[in-house]
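Data deposition worksheet. Section B asks for the primary sequence of the deposited chain exactly as it was used as input, without tags or linkers unless they were present during the calculation. Section C holds the resulting structure in token form. Section D is free text for depositor observations; keep each observation to a single sentence. Incomplete worksheets are returned to the depositor.
Section A, Depositor: J.P.
Section B:
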Amino acid sequence: MDVFNAMAEIRMAASRALALLSKQQINFTTDRAEAIAELCDGAEAAIAAVRDMATGAALDDAALAAFMDENGKFL
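Section C:
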């Protein structure tokens, strides 16, 4: 159940971010836009890893270790 709750939190957080962007029409500096894009890329990679593990297409040990090295700092 914790996995479902965590994934629901991700979906809701993305929906909140989208709502904020659409309501406020914010123009970001290049640095902030790049930072947000990097966060999106990290979220997409994490979601793909969860999907792969849930569907049995889990990453091998080396790929999982590389993913955690890259993204573990956000946990």
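Section D:
The two ends are 19 Å apart (CA to CA).
The longest helix spans residues 30-54.
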